[in-house]
Specification:
This protein has 362 residues and is mainly α. It has two domains: 116 residues, no CATH class; 190 residues, no CATH class. It is elongated and about 75 Å long. It starts with 9 loop residues before the first helix and ends with a helix. This is CRA domain-containing protein. It comes from Somion occarium. Pfam families: CTLH.
């Protein structure tokens, strides 16, 4: 681990462990933009900008007469980043609300590369060209456009099979959805009236047949087998008058919408050459994993004299439990010599678990 190398020069250590205010500001803004916290992001950029005041308290456009006016690069790119995040959020909320057809339309309009089999199409955002250095990652779910399109159509079939609406309340109170499309039945209070049940059932059967045909045309045998089995299970929704009160109810839960929304969002970020999570969450996961492995392997913190210059540990790390360690002068490692007068005592701090909240507060 780099932090354990005693031969690092002070300059290298300090630059690694001491982020400047601009880097910290960019890290926080990345988190806000990634999660589409638009109002918070705008307020943060405005209030965290470095301001130079004159003797009267008025803001100066530059630090001195000899300097050119300062340009806040984060503020310049903020609206473009928020637009991308808001579009991602719009697509996901439509899926979470059961409006899959509308979500598919938005997806094709905002992010055509996600459902397009032409992988050579470039992302629309000019910012993507500046992120060529962003670490690549392996998505947890498929980003194949064929799979995504089929998954959306399957979910649309599920939504059309509902007899009881499943309402989704977005945490964002400012986000409102328009009325559902007239061709869709999923968001109505119930299925069609008795005289229309047969027509609605026939429409569902046609949907199912179309899905089977699409799954049968998949190129890979493994994919065909997987989707044919899934469609065989989901097709059971046609059997029950009230599928919400049947063994098929598991396919009508909100969790299935959430899984699809997460998959689509991951595919959007993948096609836009962005990380699936914010940078601060990525660093926190990495650090937490390293700390867990170190603790499990019995690795201790390096002594203060071997820690890089400029490294500041959270309070719990500074107060980590000190584990006694006996060092035998003979270096024989024989258990028979442990506890004898020939040895000498040393101490080592046990490696604590990483707590992001504590680290941020400190």
């Amino acid at each position: 681990m780099q932090s354990w190398r005693p031969k690092d020069t002070p300059t290298e250590s300090q630059s690694f462990f001491k982020a400047n205010p601009d880097e910290i500001r960019a890290l926080v803004l990345d988190y806000l933009c990634h999660n589409a916290f638009s109002n918070a992001a705008r307020a943060f950029v405005r209030d965290s900008a470095v301001k130079h005041l004159d003797a009267d308290g008025d803001e100066l456009m530059c630090a001195s007469d000899k300097e050119e006016p300062r340009v806040d690069t984060l503020a310049l790119t903020l609206e473009e980043r928020l637009l991308l995040a808001q579009r991602r959020k719009d697509v996901c909320i439509h899926i979470l609300s059961g409006q899959v057809d509308e979500a598919t339309t938005l997806l094709s309009s905002y992010f055509p590369t996600v459902l397009s089999e032409d992988h050579d199409i470039l992302a629309e955002s000019s910012e993507s060209s500046q992120l060529a250095h962003t670490p690549s990652y392996i998505p947890a779910t498929s980003v194949d456009p064929t799979h995504l399109a089929l998954n959306l159509r399957i979910q649309a079939f599920i939504e059309a099979s509902r007899t009881v609406p499943l309402t989704y309340h977005s945490p964002d109170a400012s986000f409102t959805l328009g009325p559902p499309s007239p061709i869709r039945r999923a968001e109505s209070s119930c299925r069609p009236a008795n005289e229309d049940i047969s027509a609605h059932q026939e429409a569902l059967i046609h949907r199912a047949q179309s899905l089977y045909a699409e799954a049968h045309c998949l190129a890979k045998p493994v994919d065909r087998a997987h989707y044919m089995k899934e469609l065989g299970d989901i097709g059971g929704l046609l059997v029950y008058t009230e599928p919400e009160n049947s063994p098929m109810a598991k396919y009508l839960l909100q969790e299935r919408r959430e899984s699809l929304a997460d998959q689509i969002d991951s595919a959007i970020l993948f096609r836009m050459h962005r990380l699936p999570i914010s940078k601060i969450e990525l660093v926190a996961r990495y650090t937490s994993t390293v700390c867990s492995f170190a603790r499990g392997m019995g690795v201790g913190l390096p002594p203060p004299g071997r820690r890089p210059a400029g490294l500041h540990l959270p309070p719990s790390w500074q107060e980590a439990q000190v584990v006694p360690k006996r060092l035998d002068s003979s270096n024989s490692g024989s258990s028979a010599k442990k506890g004898t007068s020939g040895g000498k005592e040393s101490s080592e701090q046990s490696f604590p678990l990483f707590d992001l909240t504590e680290y941020v507060d400190s």
